[in-house]
Design brief:
Elements: E1 3-10, E2 15-22, E3 27-31, H1 37-47, E4 50-55, H2 61-64, H3 67-74, E5 78-81, H4 85-89, H5 91-97, E6 110-112, E7 116-120, E8 123-129, E9 138-142, E10 145-149, E11 152-153, E12 156-157, H6 167-180, E13 186-189, E14 195-196, H7 197-203
Parallel strand pairs: 3-4, 4-5, 5-6, 10-13
Antiparallel strand pairs: 1-2, 2-3, 7-8, 8-9, 9-10, 11-12, 13-14
Length: 212
């Protein structure tokens, strides 16, 4: 199956909202539609793809803002880790704290836990827990590509100073990523450019202890 990765960068936090679509059938999976739902919907319509589901890495305000409108627009299910429930519940007040207008808080159709697999048509999606940035942080592997939310960035790692964050837990999650991913597999984070685990083990100052 040939999967094309498109994305739009939205909102004041410059969050990457991903649209993964199968070239043969034009069906799509959305990952972390974070803000500016009209922009994301416009991209979906431009690509002429049919969304099947929304998968989120976590529930921070900059990653879930567009979920509700897109979910209703296409009548598709929303997947989120169960431990993100409290963060999701505090979405409106977090928006207020950052001076951002909130959208409707999305309703979760399927709570996920642990490590597992989801299938949509010919999409075969492996998910695994990567907490630390948030309690229920989740990464997704699709066709030897990883979508890790705010766990790992090019040259950096996710912040751990927000409620539910924990630095030691985040480092353990990145170690887990190292074991699961081949060094040259593309990693698409929630902010900034794509990278690979091989590149990060060489250049990322937070990963020096993980080289061996």
């Amino acid at each position: 199956m040939s999967i094309i990765v498109d994305f739009v960068t939205v909102g004041p936090f410059k969050e990457n909202s991903f649209i993964l679509w199968e070239e043969e059938t034009s069906v799509a999976i959305l990952i972390d539609p974070g803000d500016e739902p009209e922009v994301i919907i416009s991209k979906i319509e431009f690509l002429k793809v049919t969304p099947l589901a929304i998968l989120n890495s976590h529930a921070h305000l900059d990653h879930i803002g567009a979920v509700s409108k897109i979910k209703n627009e296409y009548s598709i299910p929303f997947y989120l880790h169960k431990k993100e429930n409290k963060i999701l519940e505090h979405y409106p007040e977090m928006c207020s704290m950052f001076g951002i207008t909130s959208y409707d808080t999305p309703i979760v159709d399927h709570w996920i836990t642990g490590d597992g697999e989801i299938k949509f048509n010919s999409f075969n999606i492996q998910y695994f827990e990567t907490p630390g940035h948030t309690p229920g942080g989740t990464s997704y592997i699709i066709n030897d590509m990883c979508f890790c939310g705010d766990t790992l960035f090019s040259g950096s790692i996710g912040r751990t100073d927000l409620p539910g964050g924990d630095y030691s837990t985040l480092i353990r999650s990145i170690k887990k990523m190292k074991l699961k991913l081949s060094p040259n597999w593309p990693i698409f984070p929630g902010h900034g450019p794509s990278t690979t685990m091989g590149e990060e083990l060489i250049h990322n100052p937070f990963l020096t202890s993980l080289k061996d």
